[in-house]
Amino acid sequence: MSDLTLRELQEDDWTALQACLGDAETVRFTEFEPLTEAGARGLVGWALGARQKEPRQAFVFGMSLTPGAALIGIATLTVRDFALREADIGVIVGREYWGRGYGTAAVQELLTLGFGTLGLHRVYGECDPANAGSGRVMEKAGMAREGLRRECLWQKERWVDRLLYAVLDWEWADAEKRRQGEVSRDENFG
Q1: CA-to-CA separations, 115 to 72, 108, 118, 124, 182, in angstroms, rounded
Q2: How confident is the model over 74-129, as pLDDT tens digits?
Q3: Is residue 39 helix, strand or coil?
Q4: In order of start, what are the domains of the chain with their CATH numbers?
Q5: Which of 43, 109, 130, 189 stands 20 to 30 A from 52 (CA)?
Q6: Helices 14-21 & 37-52 angle (0-180, nearest 10)
Q7: Cα–Cα distance for residue pair 8/3, rounded to 1 Å
Q8: CA-CA distance, 9 to 45, in Å (whole number)?
Q9: Please, are residues 34 and 24 in contact by the beta-carbon 8 Å criterion?
């Protein structure tokens, strides 16, 4: 979606984040409860601090429909291993904006940052198996389902499974070439 904007969080974004991520249904499959004022302020404070670290490990963006508009969600990329050039991503879109392609657009922007700017080799994301929408978002963005991690996370007073999705740098580059009408790596060998 061309009308989606990802931008660095600002100190006063806590109110918009609380409004968006304070909804129980929006955060149903996340590790955290609906955001309170303190939680939203803490998230923004953490994001501002993460921006100052060198090397930078965490990138936290607010999602809006136009520059300067209210936030509709949050998108993150966290480098988990600098030597292996590996990162994970996460996207949460406010419930009233589900099903409009904003999650997929955000994931694609995060992949562009990861592969195009940061030079990563592998980017992965996880979701609850009951959250079919998140799995579809990652697949539409070009990520492949790699497997199921059984009871790997203690979340909201219970063990939960996680589906693992990932994409590699050369897969992303091939997909970019196809989008631009060029020949893919696999077609050269077929």
Answers
A1: 25, 10, 6, 12, 18
A2: 999 999 999 999 999 999 999 999 999 999 999 999 999 999 999 999 999 999 99
A3: helix
A4: 5-188 (3.40.630.30)
A5: 109
A6: 120
A7: 17
A8: 9
A9: yes
